[in-house]
Write a structure and sequence with these properties.
The complex is a heterodimer of chains A (285) and B (341). Chain A has a 6-stranded mixed sheet with strand order 6-7-8-3-9-10, sandwiched between helices. Chain A has a 4-stranded antiparallel sheet with strand order 2-1-4-5, with helices on one face. Chain A has a single domain, classed as P-loop containing nucleotide triphosphate hydrolases (Rossmann fold), CATH 3.40.50.300. In chain A, 34% of the residues lie in helices and 23% in strands. Chain A has 285 residues and is of the alpha/beta class. In chain A, α6 packs across α8 (179-191) and α8 (179-191) packs parallel to α9. Chain A contains 12 helices and 10 strands. Chain A has helices spanning 5-12, 70-76, 108-114, 130-134, 136-141, 146-159, 163-166, 179-191, 209-222, 235-241, 264-269, 274-280; strands spanning 32-41, 44-54, 59-63, 88-96, 99-100, 115-118, 197-201, 227-231, 244-250, 256-263. Chain B is mainly α and 341 residues long. Chain B contains 11 helices and 2 strands; from the N terminus they run ααββααααααααα. A two-stranded antiparallel sheet of chain B has the order 1-2. In chain B, α1 packs across α11, α3 (91-122) packs parallel to α6 and α10 (286-293) packs antiparallel against α11. Chain B is flat. The two termini of chain B are 41 Å apart. Classes of the chains: A alpha/beta (285), B mainly alpha (341). At the A-B interface, α3, α5 and α8 of A face α7, α8 and α11 of B.
Chain lengths: 285, 341
């Protein structure tokens, strides 16, 4: 858990040009640890005292009823909560490979280059082509050559299981695709910057069942190479894709807390906490 | 709606004291007439707009006809406007209108867009409304007040400071330097364009602000989540998303600048001498020419020429608006295709 000097430097130093390094089985992958995290929106506390370890090259699901703070929590994992309106405050620590992403010397912009995010609704950039959407993040950090662009576009669309469907319309607008294709395009876009961790905030909530099944299959493929955290309101989805599942719940004070976290099979079959048992049995929420 | 007896099952649910053909279901006498009268009134109101437009066109065409037939094409290609010799060419007026309006567009668009970006993206929440309100208050200042301010405050500064500075800095540059040659007079095309820019600024800010507020938060967040700085999110996601609306804001500003009269008249110098290409020459716009001369146009040909200027102003405005529509249409058509999901 001790951070090496070079690991801390990775978040602080000027960004080098990133070349894709295939995540082979010999590479250990990236992990995260959350220590006593609390979040406030202005004066109102939204999340209290979360402790959690996110295992490398695995999918971690966060489930819970509406208003349990699960979306707030995941946005704290790459400091996306800071870009919204209002003064939002966080206490505690969030470690990426052992170093705190909330340390004063850390640039939140660089945190987000390491920890990518896919949102509830597909949000491709409508003014860009399919191909330009994929490399939008790459263009922020480097000036890729034509062949680098072509290579990245094909590799990331292929990783996102979208290449075969869009290879003939790479120059069409990113918004011209179907909803499910748009969401996979957003996943390809996030993969193009070679993130250490991929956060997904209810990525299927705006999609039909067929598109949802494709995204779930994709998550199962991607977790071989990437560390994934996925928020979902769908317990079956958590059971299908996640290795570990965390259950969040807000008490009557409307402050979200982590009730229980366990390997997915165990959490659903033998929950330790009776609130988890009631939720996974469908007795509320 | 049937008014006679009916067997519709819902009727059985009527209260026992209700009968078919009850007053509750019968047309009130005159009720339909009231509807028709109102529909007729709205039709009349709708027809009034094209009727007024037609009336204006007809008036301009009839009154401008003597000058237009006498001078033909030279009415718009000649630079001589001499009511004593009865020579009327409007090219300097057209040139002055187009140049000052384009200059206003060039100056007001970046400033207006910048102000709108500050209001929507950077200003603390509690500052947004006061800043927006102050800028939009500019729109409430009457033209003549801008003119007085321009005459007494702006032109001296232009003459003594701004124009000498531009001549010294941009003047020696090839091509664009040609725009800043000659003596600094203060009352010239450049000052006219500047005051127009100030006057159309509220329009540009207000429309741009609306457009920027309409950009979905998800677009900003999508770019930020890729590791973009705030500026990169604005330039990479927000501005491309909003570009059609921003073009619309600029064009609406241009449309206002074309017809603006009083303030420009007071600072532009009102001289229809030869067109030089430098912005530092006194000029004349079509609107200011009409305002200055309609009262002294005492013979038929002179009056006809002044009305002819109005007709041309109308045509130029229509052409600019048409161009703007085509531009916006070509952009929004792509955006509409893009929005199909």
């Amino acid at each position: 858990m001790t951070a090496t000097h070079s690991q801390i430097e990775a978040l602080v130093r000027p960004e080098p040009v990133r070349h894709h390094v295939p995540h082979g089985p010999e590479l250990p992958g990236h992990w995260m640890q959350v220590i006593n995290l609390s979040v406030w929106y202005g004066a109102r506390q939204a999340v209290e005292g979360v402790n959690m370890t996110v295992r490398p090259k695995a999918a971690t699901a966060i489930i819970g009823p509406s208003g349990c703070g699960k979306s707030t929590f995941i946005r704290c994992l790459n400091r996306m909560h800071e870009v919204g309106a209002g003064v939002n405050r966080v206490s505690g620590q969030v470690l990426l490979d052992g170093h705190d992403i909330y340390a004063p010397s850390v640039d939140p912009v660089k945190v987000r280059r390491h920890i990518g995010m896919v949102f509830q609704r597909p949000n491709p950039f409508p003014s860009m082509s399919v191909a330009e959407n994929v490399v939008a993040g790459l263009r922020l950090v480097s000036n890729p050559t034509k062949s680098q662009v072509d290579e990245t576009v094909e590799r990331c669309l292929d990783q996102a299981a979208l290449w075969d469907e869009v290879k003939d319309k790479l120059s069409a607008s990113g918004a011209s695709l179907s909803g499910g294709q748009q969401q996979r395009l957003c996943i390809a876009r996030a993969l193009a910057v070679s993130p250490d961790v991929l956060l997904m905030d209810e990525p299927c909530s705006a999609l039909d069942p067929i598109a949802t099944a494709k995204i779930e299959q994709l998550i199962i493929e991607l977790k071989r190479d990437y560390t994934i955290v996925i928020v979902t309101h769908n317990m079956q989805q958590a059971q299908r894709v996640a290795d570990e599942t965390a259950f969040f719940l807000a008490a009557e004070d409307r402050i979200g807390r982590l009730v229980e976290m366990a390997p997915t099979g165990q959490l659903f079959a033998h929950p330790a906490d009776e609130r988890t048992a009631a939720y996974v049995a469908g007795r509320f929420g | 709606m049937a008014t006679g007896p009916t067997t519709h099952p819902a009727m059985t649910a009527l209260p026992p004291n209700a009968r078919s053909g009850d007053a509750a279901l019968t047309r009130a006498p005159g009720g339909v007439d009231g509807d028709r009268a109102f529909a007729g009134a709205t039709l009349a109101a709708a027809l009034a707009v094209p009727a007024i437009l037609l009336a204006v066109f007809l008036l301009l065409a009839i009154d401008a006809e003597p000058a237009l037939t006498r001078f033909g094409a030279s009415f718009v290609t000649s630079s001589t406007w001499d009511n004593v010799k009865e020579q009327f060419g409007t090219l300097p007026y057209i040139y002055g209108t187009v140049v000052t309006s384009l200059l206003a567009l060039v100056l007001a668009t970046p400033v207006g867009l910048g102000a709108a970006l500050f209001i929507t993206e950077y200003a603390p929440r509690r500052l947004r409304t006061p800043v927006a309100f102050t800028i939009e208050l500019l729109a409430a200042i009457p033209s003549i007040v801008f003119g007085l301010w321009g005459f007494f405050a702006l032109t001296p500064v232009m003459r003594s400071t701004v124009e000498p500075f531009l001549k010294a800095t941009i003047g020696p540059v090839p091509v664009v330097g040609a725009l800043f040659q000659g003596p600094s007079l203060g009352k010239d095309l450049f000052t006219g364009g500047v005051i127009l820019a100030i006057m159309i600024l509220p329009t540009v800010v207000a429309i741009s602000r609306e457009v920027l507020l309409a950009v979905p938060t998800m677009q900003r967040e999508g770019m930020l989540a890729l590791g973009a700085t705030k500026w990169e999110a604005i330039s990479g996601a927000v501005l491309p998303y909003a570009r059609a609306g921003i073009a619309g804001a600029a064009i609406l500003g241009l449309a206002r600048a074309l017809g603006e009269t009083m303030a420009v008249t007071m600072v532009i110098g009102n001289s229809s001498r030869k067109i030089t290409g430098s912005l530092l020459t006194p000029g004349y716009t079509m609107a200011s020419a009409i305002a200055n001369q309609f009262n002294e146009a005492d013979n038929e040909l002179y009056f006809s020429a002044v009305v002819g200027v109005a007709a041309i102003l109308l045509v130029v405005s229509a052409l600019v608006n048409l161009f703007a529509r085509v531009l916006i249409w070509s952009i929004t058509r792509n955006a509409a295709q893009g929005a199909r999901a």
